[in-house]
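Deviations from the work plan: none for this task. Representative record:
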Amino acid sequence: MVVRVDALVSVGIGPITGPQGTMVTQVLSADLRRTSMITPAASGSGEYQASGDYSGTGLTGRLLNKKTGAEVFHQTFNGTGRAPIHEFADAITQAVTGIPGFASSKLAFISSATGSKELYLADIDGASARAITHDNTISSSPSLSRDGSKLAYTSYKSGYADVYLIDLSSGNRTRLAFFPGINSGASFSPDGSQIALTLSKDGNPEIYTMPISGGAPNRITRTRGSETSPSWSPTGDRLVYSSDDRGSPQLFASISQGIGELDHLVTGNSFCTKPDWSPDGKSIAFTTRLGGQFQIGVYDVTSRMAKLVTTGGGENPAWTRDSRHLLYDNNGHLYLLDTASSTHQSLPVDMSVTGCSEPTVSR
Amino acid sequence: MNKKCLAPLLIVLTFALAACDDSKKGNYTGQGNDGGLPDDTVNLSNGGIPPARGKFNPETDVSYDTLQADTVYFAFDSSTIPGSERGKLQNVSEWMKTNPDHSLYLAGHADKRGTAEYNRALGERRALAVREYLVGLGVPAASLFTNSYGADRPAVEGDTEAAYAKNRRVQVGVVIRP
């Protein structure tokens, strides 16, 4: 298989005025480099020139095409801290590559740093990591809504596995699914109005959908096996999930409106779990077990072929907005993987935040 | 569903009634009109018995000491009760005959290998398999509660096959404060 790596676009950065110009340049450079499509360059060089003024309440950014001399955009990004810098990086990425950047995405994950599994939120570069639960129980399987405003996850606060919903702007937490048996593995629909999840209330773990406003669940699968880790197609009409109904766990897709015909996604690997459907709909990332080790695979929806994208281990892949990069965990650390080149880099979360797993990314 | 013969229908109705009794005991019923009852009855043709939650607190109201020797162990990625483990469940059913006022809390677990959701479901399948087996031995379904902790409550830490084997289990807890 030929690995396609696009030629890098060079973007010169500077001048960035304001008292924290150096910090802005560093954050912006790291954001652009992380796209795997842009190489940040010194002020004055590069095919494009990004300059701006950063105050405490926002960033006014300007992008110049140096070949034509034309101004590509001149825009103010409101917000405090690093948020407007990430917005500027995404605007540059979209403008020079035509592909959405993911610097402004939010990251949620589980950390066992305190001795119990708690839920954490961070910027996608790993900065600003902070615990948002302090429940001293098991928290697991977080899912961010695409707009980053809501978080669903599994907690044993009641003693049993229930699905909770957190409104990140208000901090309000509500218990959304608490049927007898396990309630777990929630995944937001693309429009954020529903979750898909695993419930075992009817006798064994099956996939259901539920409105986040509450209401009766709608059953999606009916097998003798376990169905887990549903993920929605970008159009919301289909779900992919793992099922061990035929023995070891395999990936299947079916309609999201009710019980439909199952489409077996043949990956060539006998143990496949935790699928994640890419925002462009073309790929499904998953965790597979090979020779006793867990690796990340990517299934191509069009060609119906799968390939491995890690060799050193990995679990729980989550696509970023560009449908090219994956966040995943391995041995308690988070990584960012470029699926086009199969290269990965460590995601530097705060040193004290250890035992990281199950990353989820807003889109 | 309307083509079902009478015998399975009676079984379905029996289970549905049992589920009603269980749900009355529970604090934790699901959201929606059905209050956590099975959304329909045909799903019972899966062979599963709907799980139930007790009104006790699993963290404080369950003792694993009494029936600790009867912890049931499983093979990797399997929820089939091995033949070698079935004698333990015979012991459990006999204990229940002499202690008919007690309820049991069946806690399913998986070893750490694999994703969290898959392991949670695997632990649940193991707990439900033990429940179904005990019902087959005559233990009333209404006195059996289940839960799964996936890989999050290992009996033994470590990355050895010996550690994994001790963690793939269903613990049989006695509800001490029902």
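Chain A touches chain B through 55 residues (CB under 8 Å).
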